[in-house]
Specification:
- The protein is an alpha+beta fold.
- The chain has 9 helices and 7 strands.
- Strands 4-5-6-7 form a 4-stranded antiparallel β-sheet, with no helix packed on it. Strands 1-2-3 form a 3-stranded antiparallel β-sheet, with no helix packed on it.
- The chain starts with a strand and ends with a helix.
């Protein structure tokens, strides 16, 4: 479930009037979502010409060193001032992003608040009575997962979560991992290395592991399926299924219904990609 609940015209501050661009808006100084505040005051003014500033104009990041901050600021403002009107052809509007456009006046229809609930049936329970309960339960998988994506949060472009298990729970964010043990009532906090970069270093990390997997196969160190598991942590089928899950979730949201995964997968994936016997 989910929808565009906040960033729409009905939520636009009255002071903004008919303004459609942050740089010409009378409510800009009071608006939390001002593009000028986000890209210039919070980023460029403090010396950050990388993300997200370089998304507005890729040349700013390199040219700030040669032409100075004043030039870079003017260049950024020029880009943010770009706007469209009702007479602008829709093809031109949809061809590119408009970073200075009022967030309440954009053509965005992406959810700003969405919750996806996923449940799994129990896996077959091992009948071997010589195994302990813990051993018999191992690997049976999660039963319920709830994913919440929201625009209004302190953790912009960061992930945080909590995993509840039978023997403890794990809490994590982009900087630490906390493991709590029910048996001992004690918690251990771990601080992984912070390499920096996109998604907390995840972008570079995934690229590195992908290259390592390819190299392992090319030098015959291990078969493809093992290289995927060892170096990437998942298989190509896992990746395909995780992406398909997103489409299934969107279908469930739009139709306001519960999706049966097995049936959805057969209808939308297997029937298309597999040749009937």
């Amino acid at each position: 479930m989910g929808s565009l609940k906040y960033f729409k015209r009905s939520r636009k501050p009255a002071l903004a009037g008919d303004a459609t661009n942050c740089l010409s808006c009378p409510a800009e100084k009071e608006c939390v979502y001002s593009a000028k505040k986000i890209y210039e005051e919070k980023c460029l003014a403090s010396g950050n010409a990388g993300w997200p500033v370089h998304i507005v104009d890729p040349e700013i990041e390199d040219m700030i060193a040669t032409k100075g901050t004043t030039w870079a600021t003017e260049r950024l403002r020029e880009r943010l001032a770009e706007d469209y009107s009702d007479s602008t052809p829709q093809e031109k509007v949809s061809r590119r992003p408009w970073f200075g456009r009022c967030v309440y006046e954009s053509d965005n229809d992406v959810c700003d608040d969405q919750i996806v609930t996923m449940t799994w049936d129990d896996d077959p329970f091992p009948r071997d009575q010589h195994l302990s309960v813990g051993e018999r339960l191992k690997g049976r998988g999660a039963k319920t997962a709830v994913f919440h994506m929201i625009a209004q949060t302190e953790k912009q472009c960061e992930r945080r979560g909590r995993v509840y298990g039978s023997e403890g729970e794990i809490e994590y964010d982009g900087k630490m991992i906390r493991v709590y043990d029910f048996a001992t009532s004690k918690a251990a906090v771990h601080y992984p290395q912070q390499p920096g970069g996109g998604h907390g270093g995840g972008d570079a990390g995934l690229t590195k592991q992908f290259v390592n997997a390819i190299q392992a196969v090319e030098i015959n160190a291990m078969p493809l399926i093992d290289a995927q598991a060892v170096h990437i942590g998942c298989t190509l089928e896992d990746i395909l299924r995780s992406h398909a899950m997103v489409f299934a979730a969107e279908e469930a949201r739009q139709k306001q219904t519960v999706i049966d995964w097995a049936g959805w997968w057969h209808e939308n994936v297997e029937s298309v990609t597999h040749t009937p016997p």
